[in-house]
Amino acid sequence: MKKxxxxxxxxxxxxxxxxxxxxxxxxxxxxxLAAVLLSAQATDVGVNKATRKLFPVANTPQAILDLGIExxxxxxxxxxxxxxxxxHLVEAxxxxxxxxxxxxxxxxxxxxxxxxxxRKTANVVLNVAFGEPTMAVDTHIFRVGNRTGLAPGKTPLxxxxxxxxxxxxxxxxxxxxxxxxxxxxVCVARKPMCWKCAVxxxxxxxxxxxxx
Length: 212
Fold this sequence. Notes:
This protein is mainly alpha-helical. Helices cover 57% and strands 0% of the residues. It is built from ten helices and no strands. It is elongated and about 55 Å long. The mean pLDDT is 97.
């Protein structure tokens, strides 16, 4: 994707969805952190089903600690890798209570120090909860970045760094949401829906998939 095509690419996505939001359900920074931690290799739909039951009972670090690992597992056992996620979430809650007064920290280093929280999770929390212009590169963004030529890279970090360089500042806050939603619903993994893609004119992918 040529530099001159990036601005219209994002302007088109923005026009279709001016205020994109995460599809994870949350009301506080901690609920968001917990939901993102649970969402690794799981769908947002599956995570929301579990957290709709969990959060009314326990939606603070202390309340999760009070549930304990086994109690937490009962609420999240429908999510893949639930045992390791329960362990990580309880350990993260312990650290939040002991080191941060039960509050979610606002720096990448402090977030990434929490068990089960990697760079992508930290980027989601910084962006969605605290309004930082970060790029949380998941499988959808990795695919869209490479397939369109917007931000080609061999690793998620490489794609993230390219996006931070190439996305115009006015689009950075919402860029990762637009790219995730685009990858989830239009630029899908097996057969991208080029025939109904609003940004196809700016995309390097060839040959474009014809309408079925």
